Every structure is written in structure tokens, then in C-alpha cells.
Amino acid sequence: QVQLMESGGGSVPSGGSLRLSCAASGYTFAGNCAAWFRRAPGKEREGAALIYPEYRSYADSVKGRFTISQDNAKNTVYLQMSSLKPEDTAMYYCAAARRGCSWYGSDYNYWGQGTQVTVSS
Fold it and tell me: What is the mean pLDDT of residues 51-60?
């Protein structure tokens, strides 16, 4: 049974940093695609970042501030978030695909339970 377990969320002031972690069981990140999606109050879910072997891509809203990475030895994907803004406040979800990679949430097969990130002014 595949499980994705996010951690690292919390409340931080504007300009602060957080690192989110997504540890997988029953699934191997190496060679596959993983992504971080987020849903803010009153907004639709959007992709923030994805990683597919050595390829990485980011939403314009987070580019230059967020970094997605993975540690294959730990079978864990990370999202390093810096220079956080109030508009980054959202529930963040880790997602993984069995094949391919895209910005469409419907293409992902496995999802974590989400971790809340709150950025205050």
C-alpha cells in the first residue's frame, strides 16, 4: 500500500523559511515524478513545483523562492521555501505519479494528507 507522509508545515512570519518533507512507503521516488501542490483559501489547487529525475520546474509565483529536491537514499522529496509571503499560505500536498509527469493533479496517482503552511505579516 502506497503512503505519502508530509511534514514540516507550520506558522512563520513574512520573509521566513520552511522545509517540507514527503516520505514515501510502497513507492520509489527515484526515476519517477513527484510534485508539490497547494490550495489556498478561496483559490483552486495549483502546482507549486515538480521533479522528474533531474528535471525541475516551478510555478511563476514561487520561482526563485522555492526549491524542490529529493534524497533517494531516504526516499524523500523536499520543498525548501524561502522568502515566504502571506499569499503562500495554503495546505500543501505531496503527489507522486506512476508514469510521466505533468502540472495536472489528475495525472498523479498518490497523494499525501497535506501539511498546513501559514505565513503572517
Answer: 95
